[in-house]
Amino acid sequence: MSATDKPTPATAAAERIRFGLRFKIIVGLTIFNILGTAIFAANHYLAEKQSIIAGVEQKLAAAARALPDMLPPGYFDRAVSSTAVSPEEYRKLVDQLSRYCSDIGLKYLYSYTYRDGVFFTTSSNATPEELKDNSYAAYWQEYIQPKLELAWNTQQPIYDEVNDEWGRVYSLFKPGITAKGTRYIVGADLAIDALIAKLDKSLRKSILIGFLSFFVVFLFSFYIGTKLSSKISLLADYTRELAATDFQPVEDLPLRRQIGAMPAQSRDEIAQLASSFISMESRLNTYLRELTETTATKERLHNELRIAGDIQLSMLPQGFKPRLHDDGRLGVDLSAAIKPTKEAGGDLYDYFYLDDDHLCFAIGDVSDKGMPAALFMTVVISVLRARSTAEHIGRPDEILRQTNELLIPQNAMCQFVTLFLGILNVRTGELVYSDGGHNHPFLRRAGGKPEMMAFDGGVALGIMSGASYPIYQTTLAAGDVLFLYTDGVTEAIAADQSFYTDERLERVLSAIDANERAMVWVETSMQSVFDFAEGHHQADDITVMALRILPGKT
After folding, report:
1. Whole-angstrom Cα distance, residue 430 to residue 237?
2. Number of domains within the chain
3. What is the mean pLDDT of residues 135-145?
């Protein structure tokens, strides 16, 4: 074919392709625009709806939590019969709760008790109309609601829409139990009309945003279909040919010659793209090969890290058999658990007997996370076990001091570890302990509430040579529980960026039956942290240990 014959078929093909691609681009993008707009508007509305309902549920939950605090002390324990609360006292509660509901925008806030298969009202607010004609729920008034019974039976909070003689509302039924074991249910209602109004406003907003986005994208689609047809169609054909050759350069491919000529024909962005396509052939082939090699390497590294983490965890004690003695010595029940934030972590715990009467236990937290912390953690465990010998019974401070001195020469990475170390005499209950900058444990005496132990700790280990560590002593009795943890517990982060805190941990420990095994204390506290931090990535290693004193056999 002569040089003068070449432009004619190319021009004809370009005209035909330009028209077809323009039509396809406009129609295709319009359909995509319609679907995308519909999906966007629907998702926007669903997200708004979910956010609104979540806000409503948080509001109801906050009110339900606040109700017991607004009632007189011991009210739920007292309000268990029809004559326990006088009309005057009940009316004062109605007025108080009514003001509270008016301030926060709730319709109803109330509580029930359950007797002989029937729910009875023990507290309630009233609407302004009900206050005028005294038509509010009376004390010990019966109430029937299947969702209420479901919440009572499952002991789980129930959110649902309710429509009964009190109106159509969105309700929360939240079971509770007093310290004396009296069960009750707190309820909170928001008028459904207010919720529907918010949802309607959100729906209109979503539709408007969807329409505007459709209009803008449609104009853009029309522009794309008009301006970018022939050359893009050619590039599309070229990419199909390129894929058919597995990204291997074919010098005599007709499409490749046409694409190669584009940069000489024009200097626009499409010409630059065509030039990039030419160089992309060989580079893609190289990248695919390197990607395959990199993926295999990463998978191998991941498996190695996982194995390293398993090896690290295997260094920690994996179980503690409770000891009950026949000679009058106290029994001990101990349990611990760890949840690294990565394949391997820097938290640690350990426990072992120095002799028949002395149990040594420790918990620690290495600075940083991941493999560097895990390696330093293994060093700490090894040194700590080497220094924790029978000759140091009663001297946890000396064990920490020697461990610190041995860690410093091996600490090229300038890491450190906080450490709490205790030695328990199981015959007398005497506990001696020292602390190197670690979180203060909670001690729950038999029949009491958990309290954070107060003492002045020393500096973290691995920082300063010559550091000394104070020694402290206390006596544990049967029924006492010592709870130790790392800062990954109290500094766990929720989806709303709030922290778990010492106060929350104290409440969780207060709610645990003092007679439960140490394993239950560990599992309950860990699950509480996981539930709190659901929706947010784990920010730090989490470790807990519970030591419970058992009465000795006589």
Report:
1. 83
2. 3
3. 91
Residue 287 and residue 184 in one domain: no
DSSP string, 211-245: HHHHHHHHHHHHHHHHHSSHHHHHHHHHHHHHHHT
Q: How far apart are the C-alpha atoms of 312 and 197, rounded to whole Å?
A: 56
Confidence of residue 61 (pLDDT cuts 50, 70, 90): very high
- How far is C-alpha 431 from the chain's CA centre? 35
What is the model's pTM? Answer: 0.50
Structural domain boundaries, residue 124: 1-228
For residue 2, pLDDT beyond 50: no
Q: Three-state SS across 414-478? A: CCCEEEEEEEEECCCCEEEEEEECCCCCEEECCCCCEEECCCCCECCECCCCCCCCCEEEEECCC
Choosing from 180, 195, 228, the residue where a domain stops is 228
Name residues whose C-beta falls within 8 Å of residue 143's C-beta, 6 or more positions apart in sequence: 112, 119, 120, 121, 137
Specify whether 298 is located in the same domain as 387: no
Task: Say yes or no: 458 and 392 in one domain.
Answer: yes
Q: Are residues 216 and 250 in the same domain?
A: no
**DSSP assignment string, 513-536:** -TTS-HHHHHHHHHHHHHHHTTTS
pLDDT at 3: 42
Residues 199 and 265 in one domain: no
Specify the length of the chain in residues: 554
Higher pLDDT among residues 49 and 508, named by residue: 508
Q: What residue has token string 């406003």?
A: 201
Residue 161's contacts (CB-CB under 8 Å, 6 or more residues apart) are 168, 169, 170, 171, 192
Q: Is the pLDDT of residue 137 over 80?
A: yes
pLDDT (tens digit per residue) in 16-55? 455 565 666 677 777 877 887 778 777 877 888 788 888 8
Report the distance separating Cα 83 and Cα 87, nearest Å. 9
443, 506: one domain: yes
Residue 179 CA to residue 454 CA, distance in Å, equals: 26
- pLDDT band with cut points at 50, 70 and 90 for residue 530: very high
Report the C-alpha gap between 478 and 480 in whole angstroms: 6
